[in-house]
Amino acid sequence: MTTANVEVAAHDGEIDIVVSGEIDLSNAESVQDDIFAAITNHLVAVHIDLSKLTYIDSAGLRILFALADRLRLLQTRCRLSAPAGSPIQRVIELSGLASLVDVHLS
């Protein structure tokens, strides 16, 4: 069974969400629940840090697309960080997610 950890830190109308470990079909629902529980109608911006994520499959990508859509409806900025040259960056690029959120490469 794969494991993922979601850490949330809130400050001044913004939240930072750090996702670490691996996201696949076996844990995607709980990861999505953890992330979406942190999203409120009063946020100005959300930063998703994927620098500690080692694997993501289509179920994990579905979470990120759903989050981007939800934040668009809430008119909340979304910034996604991923390591430059990493497989996670490549997946983000190939999926088209970069056209929906601001992607920052570290």
Automatic annotation (TrEMBL):
CDD domains named in the record: STAS_anti-anti-sigma_factors
A Pfam family annotated for this UniProt entry: STAS
Family to which the UniProt record says this protein belongs: Belongs to the anti-sigma-factor antagonist family.
PANTHER family tied to this protein: ANTI-SIGMA FACTOR ANTAGONIST TM_1081-RELATED-RELATED, ANTI-SIGMA-F FACTOR ANTAGONIST RSFB
Organismal lineage: Bacteria, Bacillati, Actinomycetota, Actinomycetes, Pseudonocardiales
Family annotation (PROSITE patterns): STAS (PS50801)
Domain STAS: 4-106
GO molecular function per UniProt: anti-sigma factor antagonist activity
This protein's name: Anti-sigma factor antagonist
Highest taxon listed in the record's lineage: Bacteria
